[in-house]
Amino acid sequence: MAKFHLGNYKPIIALGLFLLCWWLVPLFVKSFLRLSFNEIQAPFWNTKAQLDDLANFWAQRNHSKTELIQAGREMARQKAYYQYYAQLNQQLEAEIERLEAILKLPSQRDYRHEVARVIKRDLNAWWQTMEIRKGHNYGIEKGAGVIFAGGVVGKVIEVYAFTSRVELITSPNFRVAATFEADQRPIIYQGQRQTALGDPLGRVDNVPQDLIAQSNRPLKLITTDYGDTFPAGLKIGSVSWLEIGRTGIFQAGSVQLDPRLLKLDEVTVLIPLSIE
Amino acid sequence: MTALYRLLLLVGCNLVLFCLSGLINHALSGLPIYWLLVGPMLILPAAYLSYKGMLLCLLLTGLWIDASIPNQLGGFFTFNLLIIGSLLYRYRKRFHFEHNFHPIMLAMAANAYFIVALSIWTLWHSSWNLEFAILALISLVASQLILPLLAIWFFSFQRCLIQHFQLAETLHAD
């Protein structure tokens, strides 16, 4: 039998001692280290995003004048269209305020919109996050909701000096109160990992049994204002099939999310005005 | 000072590899493929550095990686890089690091360990589901397929820089 030499195991013993010391290090030191390492990395991803912007700029410059004129015309049409809706929106908001005053209702929570560029998408089996190019410098707070043109994107989970990390709506850790458009009863939405080569998905579990979803008439899932993260009425996804869940009392089903979620370049962070 | 410069150079190489894999994963984000390429980062530090140097190199690399992933995983990469690095250091005399065959095999084994350990760690904190298993398996296969090619470049890159900066005279001296 080979003789046991303690000296041969010096590296393993040293590692054990090191890990023990590391375990005893106070939490604030570890948090500080994590924060520092993240702040060191931020310039790399910021630079990469700026270079992408520059590449886009030069790609746009290659368009001919005729194409630019056509794009300008199209933009002018779109602008006129949205100006009309902006006016309509103002009228509706004034009407809401008037009705709130008459009925003595508490006013709805207001948000500031901060548009931010996505600098890093990190979507895999273990975590589903993305980093955006705005952080404490723009007043972004942990827990703020993130949206895009197609609806809800996710929630801010970590905020640094110049960047923030967003947990996507597809993450299994993401849960939010939701409701169907034609129904006021609250249900819980939870993210689901992306299936192989499929569109992003989520899941609803406690849907009342009287609701029927069909593939030709899917139910639109929207946010509620219960959680204070999102305003009511933002699109989460659509449900085209519901079946009896594990409890036997409620229905459950998959939520089809916008496929653009996995390729986002720009998002909007909702900052509740009461935070400021 | 040579040992310190070599340490810093190997840390720098690890960060380059991590940033490159991040760029590729960013571009591939619409697909279910994800390249987790941590295995090659601990091979040459365990082979060419002193034990203290290797620990410091892998500690810095691990902290860098852990800072760029969600906090719920704690110090997963720091912890595992140190453990695997120490094991490799303990048995490093059995391998030939001057050629690429052993380093590539070790990098593949270490990388597979990281993916499996990360999957087990994730399952420990959440419930089992088929989507997770499929995605983790795709990531494992994709990473292991690309790894030999990438490792050849990465080890050559590290050796090239070590020679360029004339930090090679004390290799294997510890």
Explain the overall architecture.
The complex is a heterodimer of chains A (276) and B (174). By secondary structure, chain A is α+β, with helices and mostly antiparallel strands. Helices cover 32% and strands 29% of the residues of chain A. Chain A has three domains: 9-58, no CATH class; 63-107; 109-276, Rod shape-determining protein MreC, domain 1 (Thrombin, subunit H, Beta Barrel). Chain A has three helices and 13 strands. The longest helix of chain A is centred in the first third of the chain and has 39 residues, at 65-103. Chain A is globular and about 85 Å long. With 174 residues, chain B is mainly alpha-helical. In chain B, 71% of the residues lie in helices and 0% in strands. Chain B has one domain (2-164).
Indicate the multimeric state: heterodimer
Q: Strand-and-helix sequence of chain A, N→C? A: HHHEEEEEEEEEEEEE
Can you identify the CATH class of the largest domain in chain A? Mainly Beta
Give the overall silhouette of chain A.
globular
Integer average pLDDT of chain A: 86
Strand content of chain A: 25-35%
Rounded to the nearest angstrom, the distance between the terminal CA atoms of chain A is: 71 Å
The major sheet of chain B is characterized as: none
Q: Largest beta sheet of chain A: what is the strand line-up?
A: 10-9-6-7-8-12-11
Low-confidence segments of chain B, ≥5 residues, pLDDT <50? none
How many β-strand runs of chain A? 13
Kindly report the greatest chain-chain contact and the residue count on each side.
A-B, 45 and 43 residues
Largest sheet of chain A: 7 strands, antiparallel
Which stretches of chain A are low in confidence, meaning pLDDT under 50 for 5 or more residues running? none
Overall mean pLDDT score of chain B? 87
Question: Portion of residues in helices of chain B?
Answer: over 70%
Q: Any guess at the CATH architecture of the largest domain in chain A? A: Beta Barrel
By DSSP, the count of extended strands of chain B is: 0
> What's the N-to-C terminus distance of chain B?
14 Å
